[in-house]
Structure prediction request, 269 residues.
Amino acid sequence: MRRFQLLLFNTIQKEFRSKTLVLITIITVAVILLINAGLNFLSKEVLSQMGQEGAAQGTTMALIFIISKFTSLLAIIFGVNCIKSDIETNVSPLLMSFPISRFEYLAARILGSWIIIMSYYLFSVVIAQILLSSSIGSIVGGPHLLGAMFYTALSNLIVIMISAFLGLNMPKIMALLMTSIVTIIVTGSNMFLKGKEWAEMTADLDFFPIVALGFHTFFPRMGIIDDIGRNILLQKEIDLNIAIELGHFGLTTALFFFVFYYLFNRREI
Prediction:
């Protein structure tokens, strides 16, 4: 456990030095400040016509959407680099010479990158909520925002795992592109088959529905998880069995990780 903790801390320390993280954080804060300045510019008459609560809710949703997209972008970039950069700089062979298992190494790199990404996400959301609350004159957000952030965190963990896996097997630019494509396909498959019974999903199958069914069945359902988080954020009714979806997500995530570990363990480093 001590070795794993040290490796996890090393991952966090390494990623915190990333210029990409600094750049996107600056851009995010700039966007938040710009939107906040726009709210401050609006006259009380305009805000009263819109309704402070409605203005706050709409602005919060827009900001969370922007922050979530930046978070996903960071997850792809950090995921691709978290292991590949070690191999390119010959750090991996050095680490493997210590009494560290490949399982510990892989888990620490993925988890460390995830912690960095979610730290950025939490920081951005907190800044947005503080500034918006100050502009509106009342507290923006609530417990439902924490619920939405939980599901965003789960989704980004899968994005990191996908990008890390692809980053080991192809050039960086190709891995970035392919991670985006896979994410879109998985999310699209989830939305296409969301809420359908098995008989309905398997009726009249041709090539594209079969592909969608494969991703929906055997892959973590990022699209469903994102949809649950979005409904929590909007405080809408969720017409899915959350326990089943979380169970499926946990099982397929564990399966994906162990397949990743099996292939990584067979790799020459």
User: Anything to note?
Assistant: The chain has twelve helices and no strands. The two ends are 23 Å apart (CA to CA). Residues 43-47 have pLDDT under 50 and may be disordered.
